[in-house]
Specification:
alpha/beta, Spore Coat Polysaccharide Biosynthesis Protein SpsA, Chain A, 22% strand
Amino acid sequence: MIAGLILAAGESSRMGRDKALLTYRGQTFLECIVAKLREAGLERVAVVLGHHVEEIQRAVKLEGVEIVVNGDYQRGQTSSLQIGLRALEGEDTEAVILCLVDHPAFSSVTVRGLIEAYGRNHPPAIIPTFQDRRGHPVLIGRRLFAETLTLPPSQGANSVIRHYHDSTVFLEVDDPGILLNVDDPETYRGIQST
C-alpha cells in the first residue's frame, strides 16, 4: 500500500497565518491536497498538525484522514516527517507520497504517475520534475524510512534521498503546479487569480 502524508504542523511565520487554512480554488490548502490524494486512489492519508491544531481541526473537513499531532513542531519539518512516518510505517506500507501544505497546486494525475512509476521497479524515491525543475509531492519508498527516522532535526529528507541519487527516479510531469511553493503573502496573492 502507498499512503499519503501531509506535513502541516509549522507556524507559517513568513505567511503570517496558517497555510493549512488558506484557500485555493474554493477549498483550504489542506482539503485541496487531501482531495487530490483521494482522486489518485490513496485510501490511507495522514496529516501532521502542530501549531494551532485545534483551530485547524475545527475549520477543515478531515473525515477519514488520520490526524497526527506533533507537540514538538518547533523542532522543524523533519520532526513532523518522522512522526508522520511512524504513524504510517506498518508492514503493509510500501511507500508514502509526501506532501507539504504550502504546495497545493499539483495535480492528482501527477500523484498517479508517481504511484505507477513506483510500481514498475520500486525505486527508493521518486521526485517529479517540470522542465527539469524538481517539485512536490515526492514519493519516499520504505527502503528510506529507517534512515529518515534517525535524522537530526537540522537535516531534511533530501539528505537521505541524496544518498540514493543514482537509483532515485526523476519523473518528468506536465504539471507546473509541482513547483508552486506558497510561502509568503505575495505568492499567495499570485495564485488567487489561477
